[in-house]
Specification:
Layout lengths: L26 H11 L10 H14 L3 E5 L2 H11 L7 E5 L5 H8 L3 E5 L21 E4 L11 H10 L3 E5 L7 E2 L2 E2 L6 E5 L12 E5 L2 H11 L3 E3 L6 E5 L10 H11 L2 H19 L5 E2 L7 E2 L5 E5 L11 H14 L3 E3 L10 H5 L14 H4 L9 H9 E5 L7 H15 L2 H7 L17
Helix pairs in contact: 1-7, 2-7, 3-4, 3-6, 8-13, 9-14
Length: about 450
Amino acid sequence: MADKLAIDGGKPVLDAKTIKPWPVLDERDRQAVLRVLDGEFLCGGEAPEALALEEEWARYVGRKHCLATSSGTAALHMALAALNIGPGDEVIVPSYTFLASASCILHAGAIPVFVDIDRRTYTIDPALIEEKISECTKAIIPVHLHGLPADMDRIMEVAKKHDLHIIEDACQAHGAEYRGRKVGQFGDLAAFSLNSSKNLACGEGGLLVTDEEDLHMRAGMLRMFGDEIDDETQLRVYNASILGYMYRTQELPAALTRAQLQRLDEYNQVRIRHCSYLTEQLEGIKGVHPPYVPDDCKCVYWMYIVEFYPEEIGVEDLSTEQFRIGMEKALFMEGVQLGQWQTMPVPAQDLFQTKLGFSGSGYPWKYSQAGKRMVYRPEDYPNAVDLCRRYTAVVGYHPPNGKDVAEKYAEAFHKVFSDLDAVRRHWQDPVTAHYRGSLFRAR
């Protein structure tokens, strides 16, 4: 007889407290930070660590220019500003992503237009983009979600046909590849996050890359209050010619990122090995679907997404959501670190339902013809809605954890699926099934 489930009083497969946090911090990181503390500079867009990080990341991605910023969200906003996208413009973005992929459009004064996702990859469905294009559309923001690249060839084909800009949201996909090329190489600009949960992490920060000198210059101005830089002296003129922000990074996080970058490829390979093993193990379990990765893509697994299909195993007394909740609780009690990070499509969030905008003014929707006619109905994005009913995100398989964690996770899945009656009995138990922030050194 199979062991009793932990949620039913049995022994857990894994002690979750033994899972080590991300990012990996060692002597190389300490020396990088000490280098700053022993040096002359703590901040500044032209400070040595920030400049070196920009050069190294541009070289890694394969772009000519990079700007280090305070966050991935800031990088996205800078990209829109560099392209002169603003009031009256529309920007296409996937319906399932992190809020910042769309809120950056609002910060630019433009209108987000949502497109449903491809049901297998969870990235924007290129076949649905064209029907959302209007005379106001200026750009597309494809998101390389969970570490998996979007279908860039098809997206770029649509963009070229309609003369649209592309901003890659690569905040979750450092080192991911599409048809042999790293993400970040395809768009007019591309944004990356350095949040502590990301594959390349420093706590908080961001990176923006481009090949175009004029885009690099305009984004740089927005990054630093809109100030002009004197061509000869390279000093600030303290004359803001555009509305800017304070989006610079600092020397301490820049130095830490540089140290982490030296091991990015190594750590990504560990993630890939562990997640490939998990997929092999889960493919044999009816009722659970591991993540799909197209043959022409390299996924770097920021998160490992699984979906639950109770209809495949004859579970009729629980709804899809109830079954997913029950599985999350049972797996969590076995020690698996998991939980939803996005519980609804972005256009279903209150921000887009109320359209209150800036300080309740209704801006930008109320002040443009494009915005006045915009209605965000969750039912218009059925793939995103269905995904949110079924999925959970598994984490904790990152370095420095070994394959043993992936093995225990697989064992937990097999164990829980062997006793569906216990899942039925306990799906309403007062268990908060969600991974802990401390796994990513965050609170």
